[in-house]
Design a protein that fits this description.
The protein is mostly helical. It has four helices and no strands. It has one domain. 77% of the residues lie in helices and 0% in strands. Helix 1 runs parallel beside helix 4 and helix 2 runs antiparallel to helix 3.
C-alpha cells in the first residue's frame, strides 16, 4: 500500500470516528437543549435554598461570636488562654465562645460546599455546549480533510510527482488542514452560540 493510500484510509477512519462521537448529540436540535434538565433545575433550586439558609445561620452565628467577643473585652485570662472562671461571665464565655467559633467555621465550610455545588450546576450548560462545539468542529474539520485528501488523490493521478507520494507532505497537509479548520470552526461556533 502506498503512502497516499494509507493516509486516505487514516483520514477516512478519523472522519468516521468523529461522526460516531457526535452520535450522542443527535437529539439536540437547538442551543436550548444544552440547558439544565428538570432534575438539574430541581437540584439548583435546592442548592440555592440550602445556600440561603446556611447564609442566615452563618450571619446569626457570626453575630453571636461577635457579641461574645465583645463581652470578653477586659476579662482576665489564665495562663492557658481561657477566661478566668472566678466569675460567672468567664465560665459562660469558656463554654460558649469556642462553640460559637466552631459553628462559624462549620457553617463557612458548608456555605462554600453549597456555592461550589450551585456554581457547578450553573456551569453545566456551558460545559455541554463547549463539548459539543469541540466535537462538531473536529467533525467538520475531518470532513474538510476528506475533501483535501480526495484532492491530493486527484492531483496524484493528474500529475505524477514524488512530492505527492511522500509521507511527510501528505501528513503535513492533512494535519495542518485538520488543526486549522478545527480552530476556525470552534471560533465560529462559539461566536454563533455566544460563548
Amino acid at each position: 500500500m502506498s503512502a497516499l493510500g494509507f493516509m486516505c484510509i487514516l483520514v477516512c477512519v478519523s472522519w468516521v470516528y468523529s461522526e460516531a462521537r457526535m452520535n450522542r448529540y443527535r437529539a439536540h436540535k437547538t442551543s436550548d437543549d444544552f440547558n439544565l434538565s428538570g432534575e438539574e433545575q430541581s437540584q439548583l433550586y435546592k442548592s440555592r435554598v440550602k445556600l440561603s439558609a446556611t447564609q442566615k445561620k452563618l450571619t446569626a452565628a457570626e453575630g453571636t461570636t461577635a457579641r461574645l467577643q465583645q463581652m470578653s473585652i477586659g476579662l482576665r485570662r489564665t495562663k492557658d488562654g481561657d477566661f478566668d472562671e472566678r466569675n460567672r461571665l468567664g465560665k459562660q464565655l469558656n463554654q460558649q465562645l469556642p462553640n460559637a467559633i466552631s459553628t462559624v467555621h462549620r457553617l463557612t465550610l458548608r456555605m462554600e460546599e453549597a456555592e461550589v455545588q450551585r456554581n457547578e450546576l450553573l456551569e453545566r450548560p456551558r460545559a455541554r455546549a463547549l463539548d459539543w462545539i469541540k466535537l462538531e468542529a473536529r467533525r467538520n474539520a475531518n470532513r474538510v480533510a476528506v475533501m483535501v485528501c480526495a484532492g491530493i488523490v486527484i492531483l496524484s493521478l493528474v500529475v505524477e510527482t514524488s512530492l505527492v507520494g511522500s509521507w511527510l507532505f501528505i501528513g503535513f497537509v492533512v494535519l495542518a488542514t485538520l488543526y486549522t479548520m478545527a480552530k476556525i470552526f470552534q471560533k465560529n461556533l462559539k461566536t454563533r452560540l455566544g460563548i
